[in-house]
Amino acid sequence: MTIELRVLRASEWDGWYDGLNLAFGGVPQSPERRELIRDITVAERSLAAWDGDLCVGTAGSFRFGVAVPGGGLAVMAGVSLVTVAATHRRRGVLTSMMRRQLDDFRAWGEPLAILGASEPAIYGRFGYGPSTHLLKADIDTSRVRLTVPEGTDEVGLREVPPGDSLADCEAVYAELVPARPGMIARLPGWERLGVLDVPEFREGTSHLRCVVAERDGRTTGYVRFRVRPTWDDAGPKGSVEVQDLFALDPASRAALMRHLFGIDLTSTVSLGNCPVDDAWQHLVSDIRRCAVRINDGGHVRLVEVGAALEARTYRVPVDVVFDVKDAFCPWNEGRWRLSGDPKGATCERTGDPADLALDVRDLGTVYLGGTRLTELAAAGRVRELRPGALAEATTAFTSDTAPWVPHDI
Ligand SMILES: CC(=O)SCCNC(=O)CCNC(=O)[C@H](O)C(C)(C)COP(=O)(O)OP(=O)(O)OC[C@H]1O[C@@H](n2cnc3c(N)ncnc32)[C@H](O)[C@@H]1OP(=O)(O)O
């Protein structure tokens, strides 16, 4: 059996997408969803593995601006739509697609790659490290009280069809992107994913609903959610399943949360994907009744170590030599001197002795400033070779806000 790996041709998209859908379980998809994915697929960046005329492997990517510590946007390849047919698994098809992708990203001058993993065990071997986390919660609104900050009563709320408010909501989202590492500057068309409301997403819930927050005639936030009405012998016990909540200020955020807490016939607000430092946690009376869980989010790969470390800034001045191991992309191997501060950075090859030794995967883990280098050192993943270097680099890499990837890539 010979597997041929090549760039996707637009005319092959249907067979490619059928193969992909099958690998994710084969549940039928509505035409609207399929057409939207077709529209946003970038064929010349997508790979297809063929066994004869059968598509047995898929991998897509997108060129995004992603917020990095310091408030800038770095060019990142967003990796997605990765599958291998069950009949062809564990024969190295994924490995060959990862190889090709990383060589391409390098050739295209994309110093970083980011992905959301279906299973976190898959991508570490290719140099990706879990760089962001996400928080999930099921808040028992029959027991948990919300204390809102001053100004909340001045925020007006209006329920609107999600599609009608799209431009105003996108403006709110765009304004928030630089404030949090990991936020994605969406490509044209991606905003439509946020209002996609197909039957397979509902399963007993309402249509997608949207409430916008307004002050002085301006949209200052929005929440998109579905209501799942359920009942038992004691009465209603429905839940509010939140898809997105974005707000430009604390009062608007609190007003939207208060709205969710007050929806009649419901007693749970479920948040499926929030930043781990999301402010609502400081407004609730009883965090234990919020059933908070944390999962991995965006996995980051430094494609070019030097350019990647220069693409962000550092919280305090730092001058440190890393000795990097990178079995999958050996062009990164060796010693790199990073000199940076809050204004910018240079990162170049050096013959100087190393201060810290680590794998490229661990640089990916700390890149967006959420996980500290000291945590990885405690796990034995980072070795300090010059006393003091670990503390210096840890402070410099850390972000003020927890990094977070707001939606599927
Ligand atoms: C960014 C995204 O799109 S995430 C979505 C990923 N896709 C899916 O989860 C869909 C369902 N699964 C699949 O399509 C496939 O099983 C894949 C893509 C996960 C793996 O594809 P394969 O072609 O089987 O992987 P490949 O043979 O190259 O395996 C390489 C190595 O990774 C390991 N590996 C592959 N998948 C997994 C996994 N799910 N968990 C742990 N290890 C894995 C293999 O064991 C192998 O290890 P080895 O080198 O030590 O032998």
TrEMBL record:
Positions with a binding annotation for acetyl-CoA:
V82, T83, V84, R90, R91, G92, V93, L94, T95, S118, E119
Q: Where is the active site?
A: Y123 (proton donor)
Fetch the PROSITE patterns from UniProt: GNAT (PS51186)
Residues of the N-acetyltransferase domain: 3-149
- Write one Gene Ontology MF term: aminoglycoside N-acetyltransferase activity
Q: GO biological process annotations for this chain's record? A: aminoglycoside antibiotic catabolic process
Sorted UniProt keywords:
Acyltransferase, Transferase
Q: Per its UniProt entry, which superkingdom is the organism in?
A: Bacteria
The record, for InterPro entries, names: Acetyltransf_17, Acetyltransferase_Eis, Acyl_CoA_acyltransferase, Eis_dom, GNAT_dom, NAcTrfase_Eis, SCP2_sterol-bd_dom_sf
**Which protein family is named in the record?**
Belongs to the acetyltransferase Eis family.
Q: How does it assemble?
A: Homohexamer; trimer of dimers.
- The protein here is known as N-acetyltransferase domain-containing protein
Q: Which species is listed as the source?
A: Streptomyces uncialis
